[in-house]
Amino acid sequence: MLTRRVLVSWFAAIMLLPEKLWANTRKKSSHRVAPKAAHPAMGHHAGKAAPNSLQGVRAPAVSRNVAPPRPVIMLDPGHGGKDPGAIGVSGTYEKHIAQATAHELHNILQSSGHYDVVLTRSEDKFIPLQGRVELAHKHKAQLFISMHADALLDHNVRGASVYTLSSGASDRQTAFLAKRENSADRFATASFHGLSPEVQQILASLVTEETRRGSAHMANSVVSSFRNRIRLLNHPSRHAGFMVLKSADIPSVLVEMGFMSNRLDEQALRQGQHRQQVAQAMKQAVDAYFASQKNRLG
Ligand SMILES: [Zn+2]
After folding, report:
1. 7, 124, 164, 189 — which has fewest CB within 10 A?
2. Angle, CA of 144, 158 and 97, to the nearest 5°
3. How far apart are the CA of 81 and the centre of ligand 1, in A?
4. CA Rg value for the chain
């Protein structure tokens, strides 16, 4: 029991406390504005610090006029480096498809000027699953999107789908996918292998209701945006215990853009034009998600 209590306080300290701090400072925005001053695109808002002699006169007016910070989105291309992910029927590596599409989406979102977009990896390198979640926290992301194109045992199954976190899987296919994905850490040398089911349960229980709601909302947004544009799997919104979705305070979804195990999905995902369509549909989903968040929060 002692072990459990220690673990709970440890995870609460690293995951829940920052969320509270973030929530307290969110409305004031001053906490998040300062680091943005270093961002080149924000230069015209933030500029250089005013000379000391002017601070007393100008400071209050300037702080009221500062533009609200742009939401930070963490895009996570699945796998990488020594972990190729799924290997397609004609030999395509999932890690390359994930990286190419995430880059496409990164460019589209970033050039809209509405978001600050960060990638967990911009090159072909291995990052353990927990490291991906930690990166999202480090960058204070407001949305985490993991991008994949895995393989299923049934090669006839095709279409895109989107996954959110739950302790049990919505169906057998999803349970299989989550097991495969979580085993990506077999490539890691860290001690992350050692997590007992009890600790995993604690991690899952720390995911707040608010985060769950946000994740579900984003998942719905992806499905609506894909409909009529990108072929979808039957019942495309699913859930399971994906390790990479276990952020306590960041709404997170995992998108399977199609399956490497299906010849037609693999063929489509190899084409830049198709990946661009996927990225455009994702961008629309992100826009709809943040628009609804803004309305909800007033
Ligand atoms: Zn994958």
Report:
1. 189
2. 50
3. 13
4. 20
Contact assessment for residue 231 and residue 159, using Cβ atoms and an 8 Å cutoff: yes
pLDDT on residue 3? 44
Q: Picking from 38-52, 89-103, 177-191, which range would have the lowest pLDDT averaged per residue?
A: 38-52
CA of 260 relative to ligand 1 center, distance in Å: 10
Burial (Cβ within 10 Å: 0-12, 13-18, ≥19) of residue 102: buried
- Taking the centre of ligand 1 as the mean of its atom positions, its distance from the CA of residue 128, in whole angstroms, is 13
Q: How many Å lie between the centroid of ligand 1 and the Cα of residue 61?
A: 49
Distance 180 CA to ligand 1 centre (A): 8
Q: How far apart are CA 96 and CA 291, in angstroms?
A: 31
130 CA to centre of ligand 1 in angstroms: 15
Cα(226) to centroid(ligand 1), Å? 19
Q: Considering only CA atoms, which of 85, 237, 234 is closest in space to residue 154?
A: 234
Question: Shortest CA distance to 82 belongs to which of 191, 189, 187?
Answer: 187
pLDDT for the residue numbered 238: 93
Q: What domains does the chain contain, in order, with CATH numbers?
A: 72-168+180-297 (3.40.630.40)
Give me ligand 1 centre to Cα 78, in Å. Answer: 5
For 67-118, the pLDDT digits (tens) are: 788 999 999 999 999 999 999 999 999 999 999 999 999 999 999 999 999 9
CA of 208 to the centre of ligand 1 (A): 25
Amino acid at 251: P
DSSP E strands: which ranges in the chain?
72-77, 116-119, 143-148, 160-165, 232-240, 252-256
Tell me the per-residue pLDDT of 202-239, one tens digit each, with 9 for 90 and over.
Answer: 555 656 788 899 999 999 999 999 998 999 999 999 99
